[in-house]
Amino acid sequence: MELFALSAAEMVRGIKAKDFSASEVFASCLSRIEALEPELSALLALTAGMGREEAARIDGMIARGTDPGPLAGVPVVLKDNMCLRGVPATCASRILEGWIPPYDGKVAELLAGAGAVFAGKANMDEFAMGSSTEFSAFHPTSNPWDTGRVPGGSSGGSAAAVAAGYAPLALGSDTGGSIRQPASYCGLYGLKPTYGLVSRWGLVAFASSLDQIGPFARTVEDLALLLSVIAAPDARDGTCSPRERPDYAAPLAAASLRGKRIAVVKELDAMRSSVDPEVLRVLENTLNLCREEGAEIVEVSLPVSLEFGLPCYYILAPAEASSNLARFDGVRYGLSCREDSLLDLYLTTRGAGFGAEVKRRILTGTYVLSSGYYDAYYLTAQKVRSLMKAEFRKAFGRCDLIALPTAPTPAFKKGELVDDPVRMYLADVFTLPVNLAELPALSLNGGFTGGKKPLPVGVQFIAPQWGEPELLNAAAVLERRLGKAPIAPLGAATEGGNAP
Amino acid sequence: MTISEKDVRHVADLARLRVEEKEIEPLVRHFEAILGHFATLSRAREEGRLNLDGVDPFLFSEREAPPLREDEPVRSAVRDDVLAAAPERKDSFFVVPRILEEE
Amino acid sequence: MTFRYIPVIGLEIHVQLSTATKIFCPCSTDYIGAEPNTNVCPVCLGLPGSLPVLNKRAVELGVRAGLALSCTIRNHTVFHRKNYFYPDLPKAYQISQYDLPLAEGGEIYIPGDDGRPRRIRITRLHLEEDAGKLVHSAADGRLEGAAFSFVDYNRGGVPLAEIVSEPDITSPREAREYVARIRQTVRYLGVSDGDMERGSLRVDANVSVKKTDETSGEVLYWGERTEIKNMNSLRAVERALEYEIIRQTGVLAEGGSLERETRHWNDGEGITTSMRSKEAANDYRYFPDPDIPPIVVTEELLESTRNALPELPWAKERRFAGEYGLPEADAAFMAESLPVALYFEECVKNGAAPLRAANWIRTEVFRVMNEKGLSMDSFPVKPSVLAELVALVEGGKLSTTVAREVFAHLAEGRSLKDALPAAGASPGGLSAEDVEKMVDRVLLANGDVVEEIRSGRDPKGKKIKFLTGLVMKEARGQADAAAVSGILERRLGEGR
Ligand SMILES: [Mg+2]
Ligand SMILES: [Zn+2]
């Protein structure tokens, strides 16, 4: 097996045992990237030089007997909305084209401190606004399972990179489903942590009260490994919890669903017609496996979240975004269309720098906060958010986990929804209530669609606040039944994983 | 929910976004779609399926917050990089088109 | 019908809090004279990905000021974003407070126009971040008329307390008194240096004029209010308001109408000019800042802050008048600033008579301070030393004239022991016995004059004054003239 196809944990073990070097691992991933990138366009920047140096440094440490950390020599891809000092961070927007962050985000610091090696920055929907990575200002990314389809979004580049074997690990950000939905479309594990588990310092904000950084991986062990590294308190983020974080990877060997109550959601029944039958079949199958593993399947009701979550999200997220994106004004950094008057500097820079979807959201957000509309939209949506939170709290009185589809459909075709943004928003209907309620949720690959080009289909598990261990426990049990997430069958034959 | 072109122009103004004439109409339709979707809430409230009376708007999370910052100065190292990359700079100032003092 | 035009004034005062670091980042607040854009970091430059974290000290100072102004302190207080575009605002929103300010509903008393104390209600005190600075031309004029403005973010993010009054102020003089009172209070509290010239205390005034019926008092018309900016001294506040009230009254009296606008005070020309009409374009889209969790002001913080409040100027003034019997003006002067009040009380504690000590401080101490450009804290004559000097004068051992000379030497940094002989006074002054002996000597040496007086040939007391002068000369001014002539009269009477 080629080194790129190993899991992160296998890489660490091999590098520490000197079976192979970090430099060899990095070289293997690099050649994989170079082979597939023309087809996938998953990245916005490749950090080959930086990565090689870092890998060599890790090898030096190993040679000297120094422990480089839990991610020793593991290549990692960052979504392009995360600051890594000295490497451009564009957020896939023209307005930040060429901007080089002069500082490291918290996750970049933590990853470097754990011995990870940065392989590149991943493509995304502009400022994380989108569900297909087609709203990147630079180029769309292809789904490694079917290059005619989207990888999902907004963290589509990160998901495609891990699914294609660019790196065993990637970070995405999830504001309304932007980790879980691409994880589903690309057949991976993707976890959106509890709001406040991972620092947002250095994450370019989309909607501050919803954004959360989380991991992509092809194995549960890797997912837990990466989560353990990035889940840390941070005094520079006032919304990052100071609570102690457990080692998420340690208890996985003993994972069990015996006695766990896993809930299906009553309202899903009424929504069946708008959910792809394959998605429902995969969900059903996954729940059966849970039952076989000793879980009790119960039912809860989330009427507010499933009916009103979507409209509320599309009020609140744009409202915050309109304010967060106001700083891109051509004065201090990024695109600046110099004009004779200040007003024209603003209008031209922002008019030329933002793409259509970002403009739509900025304008929507500006509208709902503007004088006379605040109460009717923003405040009302916040009230509904309160109800959703209460509704989930009540539901978790009766279960340990809630199961839902991650997305209503498998990956859709490129171009299919670009001109119908509101229909594209529906792709988030099962994921965004989780962000509004600040909860953790995990998407795992529950199976594939039938047909000539099988597409992965994700299943989403939702836990109460700080319930990441519960999510990883369930995923570990199901991984034993379903197998690891496979590398997409692209390019040179790949082994390992469990291709359909 | 009726949105006018004037509404769109007004928010574009507030948001300092230059919107081309041909973009206005699609934006009006987009606003109507989004806000129309939101109007399902009002319908649900009228039908008694959604009761928001006395509900506290969930403005902030109930999580434990980290302690406030102590008043101890730390010098940041970003200054030179930021100035070097500034779109327009004079000495160590950022430069903008002239603003009249009494504007 | 005759009309009366009554001004209605409310003030918004922005006070820069005396913290070491900015309100949401650990950059230094020491921006005066600093090279542009040196005290900056990702947060106060608004770099993508940066986040604000509130400075604890700013909250403590805000609570202290709120309590001193008799406000109610909110136990949960929230920061909002005030959204607008301007180059000095790097995030295109100012983090400020909106409907849940730190402190509300306070009051402060000022000397009213009728001489009686007037209560001015404080609407609220809230915390917010300062903006950066725009430079429109360089000091050397090189950029005069240039096509650009220049932005410096050193001041951006410096913590401000905004103190908003109710429109309870009815004259420019009262406005001035109010600002002086607020400035004095924040200085007493150590919350701000309150320096208006340097911009650490900035005043915006909202002023309108209502037209009333002179006889019935009925309000006939309430003019639109204007907001006045750029008043950089107490004097400017008073002058700007005087101008603006006359202007508004004039417009109304001529049947014109006023427009809601912001006006700029031009100190050189002594006029206000229109800057922009307000509210038309402004829609700040306030919403709670999701990056900053609500601030909890604990009962402990409230209690400890309340207990640590210094005696406030008005209380001190009252006590000085009561406890030390100072006249009102002296009490006010001694309580005007905390360092002066401390100096004064230290003098008194060291045995100086309060009234005389107050006099010395008002005149000599302040004269020397002004001449030498010193502050009270660095004043070379310690209060205990001044107390000794004042006691010598009080005890008749030193004349005021010589004491002033001694004081001048003390102010040069000499000790009292060195200053007394330097001023020609003997250390320790003259005893009563010494004076008696001098009188004896003078009487002996001037037998003829004594004879003339005793025989009643000094109806106008000229001759006794002459003898007094001789004694004073011998005493090198260290004796008290009244005491000397007293002794002379007694002795001249004895021999009759
Ligand atoms: Mg203010
Ligand atoms: Zn700073």
UniProtKB/TrEMBL annotation, chain B:
<dbReference type="GO" id="GO:0070681">
    <property type="term" value="P:glutaminyl-tRNAGln biosynthesis via transamidation"/>
</dbReference>
<protein>
    <submittedName>
        <fullName>Glutamyl-tRNA(Gln) amidotransferase subunit C</fullName>
        <ecNumber>6.3.5.-</ecNumber>
    </submittedName>
</protein>
<dbReference type="InterPro" id="IPR036113">
    <property type="entry name" value="Asp/Glu-ADT_sf_sub_c"/>
</dbReference>
<dbReference type="GO" id="GO:0006450">
    <property type="term" value="P:regulation of translational fidelity"/>
</dbReference>
<dbReference type="GO" id="GO:0016740">
    <property type="term" value="F:transferase activity"/>
</dbReference>
<dbReference type="Pfam" id="PF02686">
    <property type="entry name" value="GatC"/>
</dbReference>
<keyword id="KW-0808">Transferase</keyword>
<keyword id="KW-0436">Ligase</keyword>
<dbReference type="GO" id="GO:0016874">
    <property type="term" value="F:ligase activity"/>
</dbReference>
<dbReference type="InterPro" id="IPR003837">
    <property type="entry name" value="GatC"/>
</dbReference>
